[in-house]
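Tokens in:
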């Protein structure tokens, strides 16, 4: 599954990779959590566009979000059949930019967090779904979920599931509303075993308010160091706000 992730590449690098028209300027995020606004790339009027959506999909038919289960992930194997996801699978697929994600492994009474990223430290895209929920008072909220699939050999020691990571050459097909469903289904597979690396990190990531580089610092001596990032000041996290804005 995927319950926390990081977005740390500079905005211009993300814009070059995903080719959207907007020029958003956002700070690095080291601890993106459910219900927070997350960047999403979707198709509108034939072009890619950047948008912010709540992480936690709400189907259009939900009457009261307070009584509905928070859907941060969707199983790739059944998303086309489940009422909560099937319409989005047909018409509202999206890309969710990221630089890495976290997974936990139980070690006795302790759950050890790990950070997973590409070996080349490049940003990538989760396969995502989005929906617009409309409330009884006319309010609207764009929401999104990340698709998951069986874990590859690299991640099996941590969890039996992993997020679907799309290669750049698959972005157009994934976003194409008219694509053959069988071709789309063929994209929802585990990442190649040699694409990702993982290393233990501190428990700081367990608290949403901890949103800084220590979350991705390798815990073990001699482990892979965090990738360099262009110098830029970031907004400090709010001391008592567990649902921080992306911006």
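Residues out:
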């Amino acid at each position: 599954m995927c319950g926390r992730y990081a977005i740390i590449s500079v905005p211009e690098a993300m814009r070059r990779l995903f080719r959207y028209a907007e020029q958003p300027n956002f700070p690095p995020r080291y601890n993106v959590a459910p219900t927070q606004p997350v960047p999403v790339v979707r198709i509108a009027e034939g072009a890619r566009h950047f948008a912010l959506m709540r992480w936690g999909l709400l189907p259009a038919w939900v009457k009261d979000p307070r009584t509905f289960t928070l859907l941060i992930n969707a199983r790739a194997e059944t998303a086309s059949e489940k009422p909560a996801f099937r319409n989005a699978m047909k018409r509202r697929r999206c890309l969710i930019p990221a630089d890495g994600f976290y997974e936990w492994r139980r070690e006795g009474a302790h759950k050890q967090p790990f950070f997973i990223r590409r070996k080349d430290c490049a940003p990538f895209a989760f396969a995502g779904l989005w929906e617009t929920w409309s409330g009884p008072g006319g309010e609207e909220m764009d929401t999104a979920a990340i698709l998951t699939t069986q874990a590859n050999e690299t991640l099996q020691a941590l969890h039996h599931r992993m997020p679907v990571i799309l290669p750049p050459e698959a972005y157009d097909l994934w976003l194409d509303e008219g694509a053959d469903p069988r071709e789309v289904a063929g994209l929802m597979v585990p990442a190649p075993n040699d694409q990702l690396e993982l290393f233990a990190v501190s428990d700081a990531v367990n608290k949403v308010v901890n949103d800084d580089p220590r979350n991705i610092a390798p815990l073990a001596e001699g482990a892979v160091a965090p990738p360099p990032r262009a110098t830029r000041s970031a907004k400090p996290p709010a001391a008592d706000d567990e649902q921080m804005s992306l911006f």
